[in-house]
Amino acid sequence: MANFGKLFIVPTPIGNLEDITLRAIRVLGEVDLIAAEDTRHSQKLLQHIDISTRLISLHDHNETQRAKQLIEKLHQGLNIALISDAGTPLISDPGYGLVNQCRANNVDVIPLPGPCAAITALSGAGLATDRFRFDGFLPAKQQAKIQALESIERETATCVFYESPRRIADTMQAVVDVLGGERKVVVAKELSKTFETFYSGTADEALEWLHADSNHQRGEFVLMVAGYKTDANEIPEEALKLLKLLMGELPPKKAAGIVAQQYGLKKNTLYQMGLAFSETKAD
Fold this sequence. Notes:
Radius of gyration: 25 Å
Low-confidence stretches: none
Oligomer: single chain
Helix content: 40-55%
Number of domains: 3
CATH topology of the largest domain: Cobalt-precorrin-4 Transmethylase, domain 1
Structural class: alpha/beta
């Protein structure tokens, strides 16, 4: 393993070329080979930072075969950098197959920190960041998109999606239809570029904003949806089932306390509910 080469995961700018790190420039200049999602696109960046390292393509359509070739080169001692068209590789970009194979074949993988549209957008959105989930691009087909949104209807964490300009309005309409027009959302577009824009409001308001000006639908988008707000007095079905089960074995206060701790609910509300169960059962 000591003689194997290393795979470097190198983030590249998402718009502003000044965002490339000094470490990224050094690594790209020192490795023997750069695997790029689109070699023609990446060549422009390399020319800008005066790097002539040889490029080889690695994208969704050739990754399985290319990964095998690159593993062989890594085993021969070559150091390789992986880059995508923009941002951090593997985050809604190719590279998973290669990294997975590197781990399976005892090749060191060294990820560099750097630009990522999802994190950049989230940090400036003003939505909760203590918990969030990243779902990449929503499905293009309408029914699949609706099902995906239904799956996060009661998700309490902030949800982050990427979206294309041609689908952003339809996706926002789906958010309104499935999650409700009052759900808080933030739309970020053209991050780090000249026309970077953040729009914050309800889903209804964001949909209206998108349709107000055709320019609002141009660019690459990050869509962030605020998490579902639970009512402190709203008791999930699974919590009620557990309460009923425990009521058969424990005193109401004890049963209510256990369920309250398990689901983060108010103990007194559960206690009153438990008493109601007991009265109904007695009747």
